Amino acid sequence: MSPPMLIPCPHCGGLNRIPAQRLGDNPVCGRCKHTLLPAAPFELNQASFASQLQGDLPLLVDVWADWCGPCKAFAPTFAQAAHQLQGRVRLGKLDSEANRQLAGQLGVRSIPSLILFRGGAEVARQSGALPLPQLLAWLAGQGI
Ligand SMILES: [Zn+2]
């Protein structure tokens, strides 16, 4: 038996313990009953970011803004990645206009930016959008 994985709920932030072999069974949050590992990206903000950084699955953040054409063009690709990688990596979107302070703390200079966190620390960053095959290859290079 592998030890349980710690997974923060994207809805309420509650930290859940899920056996690794159950990750593919669409686990729900013990507190709010929302799905823990949605097949679509979830919204991040200044308040939720610290809790969403926790846990045992990596977190991929898409930093975007409403005025950014390339960001909007990339959104469907990011959503497809969330679908394909469900249960292996958590995908969150950070609106850099609504969360300027956090985007600044993360050192975001251009958008879209993709930042991969593991164990609460940044492990990789990609500036600019990627087509889905390249995005998946980039993540595979990070062990995802
Ligand atoms: Zn919850």
From TrEMBL:
Which Pfam families does this UniProt record tie to the protein?
Thioredoxin, Zn_ribbon_Thio2
Annotated keywords:
Disulfide bond, Electron transport, Redox-active center, Transport
Sequence ranges assigned to domain Thioredoxin in this UniProt record: 33-144
Protein name from the UniProt record: Thioredoxin TrxC
Which species? Pseudomonas lalucatii
**Taxonomic path:** Bacteria, Pseudomonadati, Pseudomonadota, Gammaproteobacteria, Pseudomonadales
Q: Which gene encodes it?
A: trxC
